[in-house]
Amino acid sequence: MYNAGKIIPGLLIFLGLVTFPFWSNLGRAYDVPELVMPEAEEECVLAGDWMRANHMILLDDWRDLAVRDNKRLFTNDAGKRFDMSLTKTCLSSQCHANKDTFCDRCHDALAITPNCWDCHVVPTIGEE
After folding, report:
1. Alpha carbon distance 91, 72 (integer Å)
2. Structural domain spans, the chain
3. Which end of the chain is more exposed for a tag (fewer CB within 10 A), N or C?
4. pLDDT, tens digit, for every residue of 43-101?
């Protein structure tokens, strides 16, 4: 094999660089940001565990139903009705009013830039 002295070290360096993100974080746990939960509300639109994992699916579904099908009310499993609205329901003054202490902490920790604010005005309730 010609140039084996260059090819083999080159492949090892390449593999080291490609796999660096995986082995450099080995053993490190993800630090879940501490969120400020609403004090006035006792329950969310759906179960808290489900909302943490799937809120983006719910918001996309609400957007499609409200904008495309003109359906504006959501009824949860307990029979409670909510407006299908990010700003009127989720970010209202009694729920997650402060975007910085609720939404942004998780999104920043996960390096996610949601496209909610392409259409919605950033809420100012609770932000001083």
Report:
1. 16
2. 48-118
3. C
4. 788 888 888 888 889 988 998 998 899 999 999 888 889 888 887 888 877 788 777 88
